[in-house]
Amino acid sequence: MNTAPARQGHGAKENGNISMVIGLASVRLHPARRTLVKLVMRIGTLRTMNLWLDDIRPCPDGYLHARSVNEAIAILESETCEYASLDHDLGGYADDGGDGFKLVLWMAEHERWPSKGIRVHSANAPGMKRMLADIDHYSPFPIAYGISRGSWPQGG
To answer: What predicted TM-score, i.e. pTM, was given to this entire model?
Structure first.
């Protein structure tokens, strides 16, 4: 097996997965998600984007869809995010980085919050409460009631 690290922005195959080095973080990507990362790399740095983290619900227009925490991290490290809408339970994709709460912890640790707003759209009430508690504690957004923090556009 090749143990040489991948160069920034390049991938190395390992056990059918692609390991990506983006910035200083190495992220292992699920084979089904290669297309998304290739698309993001091909586009280059977008001015801004919105992140949708969910394994089941369809992605709304204007959002980049991540089904796992590692996919979301790869996107957040390569793009400027305005809005993020996060699910807690990620089904089989939880094996690829954990649940939505793990992404909130990563955002807090790396201070990589969306610039305008974040929301949790999970049906798991205890998971949502835990995510919102850490968002309220660590994010730059004011504490609020409901599922959203920050400013959201009308109908958003």
So the answer is: 0.71
Q: Which range of residues forms the domain containing residue 102?
A: 45-146
Tell me how far apart the terminal alpha carbons of the chain are, to the nearest angstrom.
Answer: 47
69 domain-assigned? yes
Q: Is 15 exposed, middle or buried, given 0-12, 13-18 or 19+ CB atoms closer than 10 A?
A: exposed
Q: What is the dihedral of CA 129, 134, 136, 137, to 10 degrees?
A: 140
Which of 45, 108, 56 lies closest to 79 in space, CA to CA? 45
pLDDT by residue (tens digit) across 71-121? 999 999 998 999 999 999 999 999 999 999 999 999 999 999 999 999 999
| CATH number, position 60 | 3.40.50.2300
Q: Tell me how far the alpha carbon of residue 145 is from its chain's centroid.
A: 23
Strands 81-86 and 49-53, bridge-based pairing: parallel
Residue 99 DSSP symbol: -
Q: Which two tokens stand for residue 100?
A: 């939505």
Q: How many domains does the chain divide into?
A: 1
In contact, 29 and 73? CB cutoff 8 Å:
no
The answer to whether residue 91 is domain-embedded is yes
